[in-house]
Design goal:
alpha+beta; Glycosyltransferase; Beta-galactosidase, Chain A, domain 5; 2 domains; ten-stranded antiparallel beta sheet; 18 helices; 19 strands
Length: 672
């Protein structure tokens, strides 16, 4: 009996051992690509050989389409157009836009500003996406034929001698267009047409990029800084070039070698710009450039997954999962909080929000994108798990704090008439940034009452010289923002290396506030400068409060830009803003000598006056000027509150010092 037990135990362990061995063997057979990629992305980038192997495994026998979608995806899209209202609406727009393109002549090589081919590259890209998508969805060759006319034009060395690698964004966007056309029209194009387009992709796109990656490029002929950069140039350039490499990689032994090297280098390089999304998805370049960069990042990551079966864990990098919240919170009822060179616009209704929604299972991202109407919506939309309550679940306030990002936005609700405020801390050396630490915006009743001026002409001399020349232009200086200027002169009016730090951010049901330490921006003149902004009185009133402790008696300006008509009260303590039949009141609580006056949005007499900068004629500036100031508290209240006759309030609440805000409540002293 004892012998039988021993024999049973041995047999049992033997069976278990055999099962384990078989399981290990099967896992090695069935899961090696995933396991291999997982190990690679956690240590070193994939080898060129691995990338080509993955391409051949996931897109075998030169299988196209492979960029962002495969044949089965296009079949799904066709079916969803028949049954889904969103898809049918987007498709109707696509038909109209595509048919309009059919009547347009092909583009011509034109550096319209003497520097950039970018407008032409973007036109070719938009036409190619629409026409190629129409071909895939209808199989009507007329759309493919018209797309080929465009692609053949830009592939002709006489008509397009290059894709302007001196300004590499132009090259990257044109390569994107050519790659999508090559891929989505693959079964239409003849061998000769494919060869023509392939040569153009390699000669005008991949070859200049390879010189950049290898560090053999002549900077006079090819812009190179993007390779190690951390801004939109890096994202767009790597993405466009990678798409070009993905579509021609398996055409020959030579293209395998070329594309493999480029794809590997693009994976290494693009990590630099992906890092800017850390830790919470914000971006120092502002929401406009978030849109630009993230569009191309979605092209890149979705194409890697569809063509190669993996993005080698790039989509797992810190910050990307939550980056869809950035456009949502940076957009108020009147448009985006357009910091730096940004523009006001709706940036949450963009197609990459659909891709982000699916990739990170964030249905709230989708709810904003559904309001947009872009052809890429058809590609990235997934109907499953649709919900209509995304906005209701979102908090009203949010902060974004990263290396170059430091800002908060707060709102009364999610309606088009909400009170919405944004306060910027930031980094004065952020790409496309201004000297704008402490700048704020304000929306109410669907109107932008406090505005950011945004970009000036990119071709102005020294516009991108972040050490000195950029700060000669009014729109880039602190005096051109909604912030403070202390002891102005001909030099930069904030420390060009300054950084604003969010010290406090509190969000509660009936109020919210944030405090930014701005001292770094004024270190030459100040011991301490802090700005607090708050939504109080059930989020219907805005309090803006500055507390300054200066090194010596100083001149201090408080500035706020607006498109509204400004009427100053007799005592100069209250300004009534009027715009489109709506009113907003602004009142000085402190200091006692503080008075409002109106200025044009032009440089101070002590500031530089460079020729050709924008005149800002449609903007006025509400200002406070204080002289011989050492320590002061500038407290201003914004409200729609009026008396029974619809005019200015006679009494105003008095907010406590910023030091007392830190208990989590803005205490308003009795109205006085």
């Amino acid at each position: 009996m004892h012998y039988i037990k021993i024999k049973f135990k041995k047999s049992f362990y033997l069976v278990i051992s055999i099962i384990i061995i078989i399981a290990i063997f099967l896992s090695c057979i069935m899961i090696p690509p995933y396991f291999k990629k997982r190990q690679i992305c956690e240590s070193t980038p994939p080898s060129t050989e691995t990338i080509i192997e993955d391409l051949k495994e996931n897109s075998p026998n030169k299988q196209h389409p492979r960029l962002m979608a495969k044949e089965q995806d296009f079949e799904r899209i066709k079916e969803q157009i028949k049954s889904d209202k969103n898809m049918s609406n987007w498709y109707e727009t696509l038909v109209i836009e595509s048919n309009k393109i059919m009547q347009e002549p092909p583009v011509k090589y034109d550096l319209r500003d003497g520097v950039r081919l970018l407008e032409i590259s973007r036109e070719v890209l938009q036409r190619t996406i629409r026409l190629s998508l129409m071909y895939r969805l209808t199989e009507n060759p007329k759309y493919a034929k018209r797309a080929w006319i465009e692609l053949n034009t830009v592939s002709d060395n006489e008509k397009f001698p290059n894709w302007n690698p001196k300004h590499f964004l132009d090259t990257a966007e044109m390569t994107t267009a050519a790659a999508i056309g090559y891929d989505w029209l693959y079964d239409y194009l003849s061998l000769k047409q494919k060869e023509t387009l392939r040569k153009a992709i390699i000669g005008n796109g991949l070859s200049p990029a390879l010189k950049v990656y290898r560090k053999t490029a002549d900077a006079d002929d090819i812009s190179t800084f993007w390779k190690d950069g951390n801004n939109n140039w890096n994202t767009v350039s790597n993405s466009g070039i990678a798409l070009g490499a993905l579509v021609i990689a398996d055409e020959s032994i030579e293209t395998e070698k070329l594309a493999g090297e480029i794809l590997r280098d693009s994976i290494i390089s693009i990590k630099s710009s992906i890092k800017q999304y850390a830790p919470d998805g914000g971006m120092g370049e502002g929401p406009g450039y978030w849109n630009y960069a993230t569009t191309y990042l979605a092209y890149f990551l979705s194409s890697f997954n569809s063509a190669l079966g993996s993005d080698y864990c790039l989509s797992q990098m810190k910050g990307l999962e939550g980056t869809g919240y950035y456009p949502i919170y940076m957009e108020g009822p009147s448009g985006a909080f357009n910091v730096g060179d940004g523009v006001v616009g709706n940036i949450s209704r963009v197609p990459q929000m659909l891709w982000l929604s699916t990739r990170y299972k964030k249905t709230e991202f989708k709810q904003f994108a559904l309001k947009g109407n872009d052809p890429m919506n058809l590609v990235w939309y997934k109907k499953e798990d649709d919900k209509n309550d995304g906005v209701k679940k979102l908090p009203l306030d949010k902060s974004f704090i990263g290396k170059d990002t430091s800002l908060v936005t707060m709102r009364s609700d999610w309606s088009k008439n909400a009170v919405f405020i944004g306060l910027h801390g930031g980094n004065n050396q952020a790409s496309h940034g201004d000297l704008d630490i402490g700048s704020f915006i304000l929306d109410a009743f669907g109107i932008r009452w406090v505005s950011e001026l945004g970009a000036d002409d990119y071709n102005l001399p020294g516009y991108f010289d972040m050490e000195r020349n950029r700060w000669n232009y009014y729109r880039k200086r602190a005096e051109g923002q909604n912030t403070l200027v202390i002891n102005p002169d001909m030099g930069p009016d904030q420390n060009v290396e300054g950084k604003g730090k969010i010290e406090e951010f509190v969000s509660k049901n009936n109020q919210a506030y944030s405090i930014v330490d701005m001292t770094s921006a004024y270190k030459q003149d100040a011991i301490s400068v802090k700005r607090g902004i708050a939504l109080v009185n059930n989020r219907r009133m805005v309090v803006l409060q500055d507390e300054l402790d200066l090194k010596s008696l100083s001149k201090v300006y408080w500035f706020m830009h607006t498109k509204a008509h400004i009427q100053i009260s007799e005592d100069q303590k209250t300004a009534k803003l009027t715009y489109l039949g709506k009113k907003l009141f602004v009142h000085i609580i402190s200091p006692q000598p503080g008075k409002f006056f109106v200025m044009p949005a032009t440089p101070l007499a002590s500031s530089p006056h460079p020729y050709a900068q924008s005149k800002n004629e449609d903007i006025k500036k509400l200002a406070i000027y204080l002289d011989n100031i050492n320590t002061t508290n500038i407290s201003v209240v914004f409200t729609s509150g009026v008396d029974s006759e619809g005019e200015v309030l006679k009494e105003w609440p008095y907010p406590t010092d910023l030091s007392k805000w830190k208990n989590g409540e803005i205490i308003l002293n009795p109205i006085k």
